[in-house]
Design brief:
Radius of gyration: 16 Å
Structural class: mainly alpha
Strand order of the largest sheet: 1-2
CATH superfamily of the largest domain: Winged helix-like DNA-binding domain superfamily/Winged helix DNA-binding domain
Shape: globular
Strand content: 5-15%
Number of strands: 2
Number of domains: 2
Oligomer: single chain
Mean pLDDT: 89
Length: 130
């Protein structure tokens, strides 16, 4: 797994790490049971403080995407979208879509972008068909 972060970005490094790991799960690069690199090793790779990696891992743990264990380290957990997550996700999506519309991006382009991004995730479950 290759993670890319921008050390000069306004987005905090721990958030970038969290986001790249979530994307790797969605893309199928990381699957249930996949181990994540130890915090100190990942921190050394980026030349950052290991507490920054700890913060990203703890956030992923709180969100139910990984489990942390002293013997096994950080491991990807099974993905189940609980109802509270669905409501939170919908609110975030609404804000992001509103921003796109407010900045003048046509609705058909927004929908096409959403479809393209969803299609890029191999872990995306197939749509229900009647």
């Amino acid at each position: 797994m290759i993670l890319n972060v921008d050390l000069d970005s306004e987005v905090p490094i721990y958030q970038q790490l969290r986001d790249r790991i979530v994307e790797a799960i969605a893309e199928g690069v990381l699957t249930e049971g996949s181990p994540l690199p130890p915090t100190r090793a990942l921190a050394a790779d980026f030349g950052i403080n290991f507490h920054t990696v700890n913060k990203a891992y703890d956030l992923l743990r709180q969100q139910g995407l990984i489990r942390l264990n002293r013997s096994t380290g950080a491991v990807v957990t099974p993905t189940v979208a609980a109802p509270p997550f669905r409501a939170e996700w919908t609110a975030k999506a609404r804000t992001l879509l509103a921003e796109a519309v407010a900045r003048g991006i046509p609705a058909d382009e927004v929908l096409e972008t959403c479809r393209t991004v969803l299609d890029s995730f191999s872990a995306t479950p197939p749509e229900d068909t009647p």
